[in-house]
Specification:
Number of domains: 1
Strand content: under 5%
Shape: rod-shaped
Oligomer: single chain
CATH superfamily: Ribosomal protein L20, C-terminal domain
Largest sheet: none
CATH architecture: Orthogonal Bundle
Distance between the termini: 84 Å
CATH class: Mainly Alpha
Radius of gyration: 26 Å
Number of helices: 5
Number of strands: 0
């Protein structure tokens, strides 16, 4: 049976991990074992925070929408209840963008929802 030398693949794997850890501080960018740990942990944080980002943005949109609605004397929860009752399917992101960038249109929209 022929002899198998595994240095090539090991070197490739080490190189890829160190490349992923480029820019990390101290030994985490130079030592394979430390770099591997750091890259794995970074991947865990990245996965977790991709999901948390959605939560954070929804919270921001709700806050913006609530503040915009309060200017016109409407509470957020009442507005959402009205919207659901009248089968209007605009999400919080669109409504908060409308409130920020086109306040006149937003005001007209609120009046229309109130009177429907």
């Amino acid at each position: 049976m022929t002899r198998v030398k595994r240095g090539v693949m090991t070197k490739k794997r080490h190189k890829n991990v160190l490349k992923a850890a480029k820019g990390y501080r101290w030994g985490r960018s130079k030592l394979f074992t430390k770099a591997k740990e750091a890259v794995m942990k970074a991947g865990t944080y990245a996965y977790r925070d991709r999901h948390n980002k959605k939560r954070t943005f929804r919270r921001l949109w709700i806050t913006r929408l609530n503040n915009a609605l309060r200017l016109y004397g409407v509470k957020y929860r009442e507005f959402i209840a009205l919207e659901k009752a009248k089968n209007i399917e605009l999400d919080r992101k669109v409504l908060s963008e409308l409130a920020m960038k086109q306040p006149e249109s937003f005001k007209a929209f609120i009046e229309k929802v109130k009177t429907m």
